[in-house]
Amino acid sequence: MTFLSLDGVDGAGKSTQIRLLVDWLTRQGRDVVSCRDPGGTPTGDEIRRLLLDPEMRISLRSEMLLYMASRAQLVTEVIQPALDRGSVVVCDRYLLSTLVYQGHAGGLDVEDIRAVGAFATTGLMPDWTGVIDLAPETAAQRRDAPADRIEQRDRSYHEKVRRGFQAEVEQHADRMSLFDGRQAAEEIHQAIIVEVQRVLDRTRRP
Ligand SMILES: Nc1ncnc2c1ncn2[C@@H]1O[C@H](COP(=O)(O)OP(=O)(O)OP(=O)(O)O)[C@@H](O)[C@H]1O
Ligand SMILES: Cc1cn([C@H]2C[C@H](O)[C@@H](COP(=O)(O)O)O2)c(=O)[nH]c1=O
Predict the structure, then answer these.
(1) PROSITE patterns attached here (predicted)?
(2) Where are the beta strands (DSSP E) in the chain?
(3) Which of 8, 27, 60, 135 is deepest in the core (most CB within 10 A)?
């Protein structure tokens, strides 16, 4: 019944914060479903593998549509059923990432992506999105795995990704918040739960 997502540049600390948030929500007695986008379903996991494979040649429009296809499957199979059961859903990335990576940074029209996104998700949008802001160089230094197809893009692309997230949060401050990824993980977590508590207070408990 409450849909939350976390987003940000690669390596900003999303998975770390999702783990902390899911533990906190569970301790609050909430039924929580966590998922990741792209992926989170057998079909989505296959699409994710293609999208992140550095050997794959994928045009920008195909790339955008593949992210949408994975998300459409995730909404149908996981997110909407969980919300219908009264669970809190916490998703690692969502449509905002497509607006930013394929739109602001990639160059596709952001409003076109919103329209395709509305179709793919049946209009289902998070009640709230937290974005962890961090310089891409700092985030890349934290990475311990080889760079995937998107992470391999140049510095200017990842700078545009960061600025795209900042711009989207500024434009949608009613449903998005920006967090300083340079802070310690526990500090960021405390700031996130203040915002999440507000969202929970205005969404009905089953
Ligand atoms: N606030 C923090 N300060 C310093 N290091 C952190 C912080 N948060 C996470 N890390 C570390 O940075 C690395 C990346 O964190 P994490 O996997 O949570 O990021 P992510 O945004 O989910 O990455 P990806 O985009 O690659 O999925 C990990 O080694 C993690 O332990
Ligand atoms: C949802 C979404 C993601 N991306 C990019 C962002 C990352 O580089 C990868 C996903 O990897 P992660 O480990 O799950 O962060 O894909 C994108 O370009 N567009 C999107 O819509």
Answers:
(1) THYMIDYLATE_KINASE
(2) 2-8, 32-36, 88-92, 128-133, 176-180
(3) 8
3-state secondary structure 144-157: CCCCCCCCCCCHHH
User: Side chain identity at 197, as an amino acid letter?
Assistant: Q
Instruction: Evaluate if pTM is beyond 0.90.
Output: yes
Q: Residue 158 sits in which domain range? A: 2-201
* Annotated binding-site residue? 13: yes
Domain count across the chain: 1
CATH number at residue 137: 3.40.50.300
15 is in an annotated binding site: yes
Domain assignment present for residue 206? The answer is no
Which residues contact ligand 1 via a Cβ below 6 A? 10-16, 142, 184-185, 188
Tell me the per-residue pLDDT of 93-106, one tens digit each, with 9 for 90 and over: 999 999 999 999 99
Is position 70 annotated in a ligand binding site?
A: no
Say if residues 38 and 70 touch (Cβ distance below 8 Å): yes
Q: What is the pLDDT of residue 204?
A: 63
**Residue to mutate, 70, 97, 132, 158, ligand 2, most ligand atoms under 8 Å from C-beta:** 97
The whole-number pLDDT of residue 1 equals: 87
